[in-house]
Please model this.
Amino acid sequence: MTLEELVGCNITDKKMETVSQALEELLVAAQRQDCLTVGVYESAKLMNVDPDSVVLCVLATDEEDEDDIALQIHFTLIQAFCCDNDINILRVSGLRRLAQVLCEPSTADNNGNEPKDLHCILVTNPQCQPLKCQALQEVGSYCKESRCKNQWVPYLSLQER
Model:
């Protein structure tokens, strides 16, 4: 491995860690401001009604979801819609970490309530009171940089803490 490859890998790892932290901060801030839509079906409904308010689409899976054909079809359709409407898309792994960040149970509770579907999460930015935070800018610039490298759907791995 050359020096350039070693330094490049290190920079990439640090960048991924920074963007992962920014994504977590963004999701928490958006949740506090009620600018988060959670669930594949709920997200599709919102994008049909008001696609201009959506600034980020997070598609989350873990290894066990990769064989779920229905979910992959939903993701393909959502990704196509996001590309057509200039909505940033981010694929992430680490559903348990995502549940922790959003303070959502990752399994059914004692009352039999199923956990929320965290496979698709939209961050909205209402025109009347825009979401202004550094984390949104960081995640957006990461998505833009990835598109410039012909990686249309960038990928992040959220690490357990």
